[in-house]
Amino acid sequence: MAAAPSAASRIAVVTGASSGIGAATARQLAAAGYRVVLTARRKDRIEALAEELTTAGHSAVAYQLDVTDRAAVDEFASAFKTIGVLVNNAGGALGADPVATGDPDHWRSMYETNVIGTLNVTQALLPKLEASGDGVVVVVSSTAGHGTYEGGAGYVAAKHGEHVLAETLRLEIVGRPVRVVEIAPGMVRTEEFALTRFGGDTDKAAKVYEGVAEPLTADDVAETITWAVTRPSHVNIDLLVVRPRAQASNTKVHREQG
Ligand code: 8X3
């Protein structure tokens, strides 16, 4: 049997690499020796990050990509013969309204970015991951993919969709040289997640983390992703749920009184 390619010769594609968990993951995979391909809609941000990584002696390129645009995703995929790692990180939440009043456009958009986006990129790159002889697909879902909470239904439904995609793909491709890893983070304080969810309302965004001693950071999650993908190729981390110590469940969060 041929030896697995070394990390140094392997390409890692990260979607949503312009900020937060995606950017942190790109940094850590680059430091681990991967040639990272940063994708996101915001070209300026991924170009700046690619430049930063290259200056630090790593290998990184930026490719502007909207994961919901299948034609663009296919064109992107056609540039590669093989890929070692795909981190499906692009996505996010819009709104936190009850089912009774939630905006159907928000629901549609969340399904489109989180589920169809992951589907598009995974379908397009799966042959390339397989061709590497040791591919890893990472789906960055959420604890919202494993239980619901009031006001979360639209996002929770989309994240359950991502979880189902990962679990089903693992069943369907067993026996082929591609691992399927799901990382499900709980409360992570990033610069944009809550702000995007609440349409730029900084007060509402700040309330998400109010009194929580130490929410997870993007780096904490990036470490779990990097750890999972760098296990030996016969070790598949099916699902890794990671929360801050202060969060016992989606609805049980310890908040210190200010
Ligand atoms: C983020 C976790 O609790 O905001 O994926 O849904 S939560």
Task: Write a short abstract of this structure.
The chain has helices at 20-31, 43-55, 70-77, 104-131, 153-172, 193-197, 202-208, 218-229; strands spanning 11-15, 35-40, 59-64, 85-88, 135-140, 178-185, 239-242, 247-249, 252-253.
Key attributes of the depicted protein:
258 residues; alpha/beta; Rossmann fold; seven-stranded parallel sheet; two-stranded antiparallel sheet; 8 helices; 17% strand; disordered N terminus; binds 2-hydroxyethylsulfonic acid
| Total DSSP helices | 8
Low-confidence stretches: 1-5
Q: Please report the first level of CATH classification, the CATH class.
A: Alpha Beta
CATH homology superfamily name: NAD(P)-binding Rossmann-like Domain
Number of strands: 9
The run of helices and strands is EHEHEHEHEHEHHHEEE
Bound ions, cofactors and other small molecules, one mention each: 2-hydroxyethylsulfonic acid
Q: Can you give the mean pLDDT? A: 96
Shape: globular
Share in helix: 40-55%
Largest sheet: 7 strands, parallel
**Order of strands side by side in the largest beta sheet?**
3-2-1-4-5-6-7
- In the CATH hierarchy, the third-tier topology is known as Rossmann fold
In the CATH hierarchy, the architecture is 3-Layer(aba) Sandwich
Helix-strand category: alpha/beta
Alpha-carbon Rg, integer: 18 Å
Helices and strands, with pairings:
Layout lengths: L10 E5 L4 H12 L3 E6 L2 H13 L3 E6 L5 H8 L7 E4 L15 H28 L3 E6 L12 H20 L5 E8 L7 H5 L4 H7 L9 H12 L9 E4 L4 E3 L2 E2 L5
Parallel strand pairs: 1-2, 1-4, 2-3, 4-5, 5-6, 6-7
Antiparallel strand pairs: 8-9
Helix pairs in contact: 1-8, 3-4, 4-5
2-hydroxyethylsulfonic acid binds next to loops.
